[in-house]
Amino acid sequence: MDKLFPVGLPRFRVLGPLEVSAAGARPDLGGTRQRTLLTLLLLESGNTVPLPRIVDAVWGEAPPDSAVAQVRICVSRIRRALKECGDPGILRTVPGGYLINPPRYAVDLHLFRDTVSTAEQLREQGDRFAALRALRTALDLWYGPAASGLESAVLENIAAGLHEERIAALGDRIDLDLELGRHRHVVAELRHLVMEHPFRERFAAQFMIALYRDDRQAEALDLFRQVRRRFAEELGIEPSLRLRQLERAVLAQDLVLHGA
User: Fold this and answer.
1) Rounded Cα gap, residues 153 and 9, in angstroms
2) Which end of the chain is more exposed for a tag (fewer CB within 10 A), N or C?
3) Contact by Cβ (8 Å): 145, 157
């Protein structure tokens, strides 16, 4: 992980609880308000964050009359903390709010997105092994739920969107594993993912394919029946057409299921 960041410059991690460090040192970021404010700025780094949005993130629906003044105090304290990392000017006051704009390589969220984009380009170019390695690198940047440990509806909404980005990248990585004949390597992982995300059909489909390619046709069909029953009992709907077509392909032992 550290090799992704130039030595001596501050790095910011938000793909988990907030972390700020430089050359091994970790500045004291202070209490919850400062951490919430800095996390919000980093999640939206490169963009101006309006003052009302900051107040909403820090205090929710019942901010004190002194909220604006307290935001200024928090910003001052964050700047002092960032000074320990050698970059006190990275947090700027701009018309209407505040802006933090570190280099993209210094924020794990930007690294994640850029590396996922690189993986997509590599896949389009036909280099699936390199694309797989890039996606693994991107996913390894996560060390917990984004912006975790802070009670803020604003941060939770942003984190929910980031969670979807992570799930999409994970699905793409497993697709590449399957395309490269690594079905036995992902069976255990997919079993866990289907249990953790029982209504995400992409994982169920990938698990069925992995089981079938591992000569476990009966288990693949049983998995479909479990998914179908769960959907009927809890949602009152059928699985998607894609998943039903996959069941028919497994029943028919369609050779397309073995394709790369």
Assistant:
1) 31
2) C
3) no
DSSP letter string over 156-180? HHHHHHHHHHHHHHHHHHHHHHHHT
| Helix, strand, or coil (residue 56) | helix
Burial of 189 (0-12, 13-18, 19+ CB in 10 A): middle
DSSP H or E stretch at residue 5:
none
Of 138, 77, 90, 70, which is closest to residue 110 (Cα–Cα)?
138
Q: At 242, is the secondary structure helix, strand, or coil?
A: helix
Which alpha helices (H) appear in the chain, and where do they start and end? 32-43, 51-59, 67-83, 108-124, 128-140, 153-179, 183-196, 201-213, 217-234, 241-251
Give, in order, the Cα–Cα distances in Å from 12 to each of 35, 100, 106, 188, 241.
Answer: 12, 11, 6, 33, 43
199's enclosing H/E stretch is none
State the virtual CA torsion across 130, 133, 134, 140 in degrees, nearest 10: 180
The residue count of the chain comes to 260
Q: 239, 207, 200, 246: which is closest to 223 by C-alpha?
A: 207
* Domains of the chain, start order: 2-104 (1.10.10.10), 182-260 (1.25.40.10)
Span 68-111, pLDDT tens digits: 999 999 999 999 888 877 766 789 999 999 999 998 999 999 99
pTM of the model: 0.92
